[in-house]
Amino acid sequence: MGKKLKNAGLIGLGVVAGVAVSLQFSAMAQKQVDPVLPLEELKQLADVYGLIKSDYVESVEDKKLLTEAISGMVASLDPHSAYLDKKAYAELREGSQGKFVGLGIEIGQSDEGYIRIVAPIEDSPAYRAGIKAGDMITRLDATSLKGLSLDESVKKMRGEPGTKVTLTIMRKDEPQPLQFTLNREEIHQKSVKARMVSPGYAWVRISQFQEPTVEDLATKITELYRQDPHLKGLVLDLRNDPGGVLQGAIGVAAAFLPKDTPIVSTNGQLPDSKQIYYGRAEYYSLRGDGDPLAKLPAAVKHVPMAVLVNTGSASASEIVAGALQDYKRATIIGSQTFGKGSVQTIRQLTADTAVKLTTARYYTPHGRSIQAKGIAPDLAVDENEDGDGLNSLRMREADLAKHLSNDREQEGGKSQRDELEEQMRILAAEKKRKPLEYGSGEDFQLKQALNHLQGTPVQLAKGESKLVKLDPPPKK
To answer: Using alpha carbons only, what angle is made at residue 262 by residues 318 and 331, rounded to the nearest 5 degrees?
Structure first.
């Protein structure tokens, strides 16, 4: 594809999500900190502060200097830790509730110094306008984005609902720049969609893990069983799901596994970060008003399942896929996932500011660390019949600067599959493709998942065996 993206992030403009954040909100940590401060380094900080105040070409506000110092300190740790000012903190809280104001694009910074579109978010202003993965934003209204940081560019793209912004875009194979005028919107995301896609077979898509996700999933599954009490198979679609609320992931996995099953464990410095999370209501119910999964049809625990994942499946998505894979509850189909195996905790600083801090790694029930590695599918299937399409343009956690290491496995060099995916990136960038509508009649991966559940051959990804037929998951 040429040059890779720098600091690629999954940022639905208006949602401070970093790359697929699993959220836990809490007060400041109670761990005792070593009282011995590095006085020499603090003196240097004070000296630089003094120099800026006295010698800089123009006056700079104290608040700006100190806020930027905090922001830089936190951002230096890893791609997912960040200082949240008043606006960012409010947007994060709104996003976890399933709503945000923005354009609806996932972006990264390119080597050319501009902002590159990783993907438009489904049902967003950008998606409806026809903005594509691989597009490069060069100007925002009259302002050039060349040289601006990712955070600075994001702030310029945010605004009030109903306000307009014009993006100037360079697109491969288009001789002239394109312009798109978009209205910023408050987008109320329904995180769960479901319908029957074939007689006896259901499709359930989770686009993001939010506070209402577990309740929404229970409602959708109940509706599916009303339509067909004898479901033969279910496809759980987690493609391009960047993650979200940790409790949502626990609840979704718990819906398909026996009660009290260990779903995920975490480990970090703080005692309360060393946890095992089980499939029971105390770990996934956010509203404290009972168990949203209590009235699920019993058959859902045994219905044959396939789970669709891709490079955009991250964090909470990987928790669900990893748990269902470990227990052999479902066949994982698609491409290797993003590889974000870390938990971010929100530590409130003031009434309206906070720090989003990486506090733990998480592990599948069998102890696998997904960090910078991801979940490898049981059946590798490309996005399209002739290749992996726009999915090939995405970066993974391991591509991000300063990413947290995998503490249980060494990050090896490129595998044969990695080399093949690099070639597919080049091919994908050369082809003009529209964003795929998941669950549509053109959804090749969904067709392959149904083939698997129905016991017919599955067309595997290029470089794999051409066709494979595995027995579908048995009913238990």
So the answer is: 45
